[in-house]
Amino acid sequence: MDSVLNPNVPYYKYFEEMTRIPHGSFHEQPYSDYLVAWAKEHGLHHLQDEMGNVVIYKPASAGHEDRPAVLLQAHIDMVCACDPGQDHDFRKDPLELYVEDGWLRAKGTTLGADDGVGVAYMLSILDDDTLPHPPLECVFTVQEEVGCSGAANLKAEYFTAKRMIGLDDVGGGTSYVTTAGSQIIEFSRQVTWEKGQQKGYRLSVSGLKSGHSGVDIDKERGNAIKIAGKVLFALLKQGDVRLCDADMGSADNVIPSHGTVIFTSALSREQVSATVDQYREIFLQQLQWSDPDLKLELSE
Ligand SMILES: [Zn+2]
User: How far apart are CA 291 and CA 207, in angstroms?
Assistant: First the structure.
């Protein structure tokens, strides 16, 4: 396979190699096994736990044996999200890389730079026998994007290091001494199904910029789920609305850019349509700076 990035630069080489091996959250095993094979090939002491977390140890470079160990950390799972209509199987398809205006991108999918960049850095450091460094304990964790479950499963006895550098920053060129956290909440509600007696509608939200739920949340971008929810609630205040289907949101930490809800309503077509028109105006005004391309479409 041809390289998009310069394979003579280890950091580029390891990043690109990673994009050829599926590593979505919960499906990191192939990449976890790649790391184990890599450690064996490089003669480095390593361990792999039952979840797929991997630790690779490298002794200090000559003259630095008396220095305390440093733990480096990155997560190997990536957020798997596709452009609408894109047919990509994250369980087996490699990503298709390309460079546009100096930026590395993946065709129709997320790139996995979070946290492939950290992983590629760690492998480059481990691979370089000319660097002066203390003993290194490099931990590659799984399931970070879905609640840091991999990190939570790590055992203290894997490590001797008391100091850690986490390589999971967004933005670059900045070092932090602490970071934000997140919480994932699951709830369920019993539904009953019935045969539709009323007119059915499809409400589509699209054209939103999306972004990372942490890094871009201050940009006041539109959220397709909230927009559709507000329209449905406005309709519900006027009469009976029954939800048939909702297909929105792709990952916990991606601001939903688009989606569709299907519902039935006892309201007249004109009333439903007028409410959607009214809310389209409201949202376009609210989001005029952050998301001017919002589309809110109703079909019967
Ligand atoms: Zn990350």
Answer: 8
Q: How far is the CA of 75 from the centre of ligand 1 (A)?
A: 6
Q: What's the CA gap between 106 and 2, in Å, rounded?
A: 15
- Rounded Cα–Cα distance for residues 249 and 288 (Å): 22
21 Cα: distance to centroid of ligand 1 (angstroms) = 17
**CA nearest neighbour of 203 among 219, 224, 184, 223:** 224
CA 98 to ligand 1 center in whole angstroms? 22
CATH hierarchy code of domain 199-299: 3.30.70.360
Q: CATH number of 10-166: 3.40.630.10, 3.40.50.300, 1.10.10.60, 3.30.70.1110?
A: 3.40.630.10
Q: How confident is the model at residue 278 (pLDDT cuts 50, 70, 90)?
A: very high
Give 252 Cα–ligand 1 centroid separation in angstroms.
12
**What is the DSSP track for 171-205?**
SSS---S--------------------SEEEEEEE
Query: What are the catalytic residues?
Result: 77, 144
156-172 confidence digits (pLDDT tens): 999 999 999 999 876 67
Domains of the chain, by residue range, sit at 10-166, 199-299
* pLDDT of 2 higher than 90: no
Cα of 234 vs centre of ligand 1, distance in Å, is 37
Check: CB of residue 36 under 8 Å from CB of residue 121: no
Distance CA 165, CA 177 (A): 9
pLDDT of residue 1: 65
Q: Tens digits of per-residue pLDDT, 131-149?
A: 999 999 999 999 999 989 9
* pLDDT at site 175: 78
Residue with token string 């449905």: 232
Indicate the pLDDT class of residue 250, thresholds 50, 70 and 90. Answer: confident
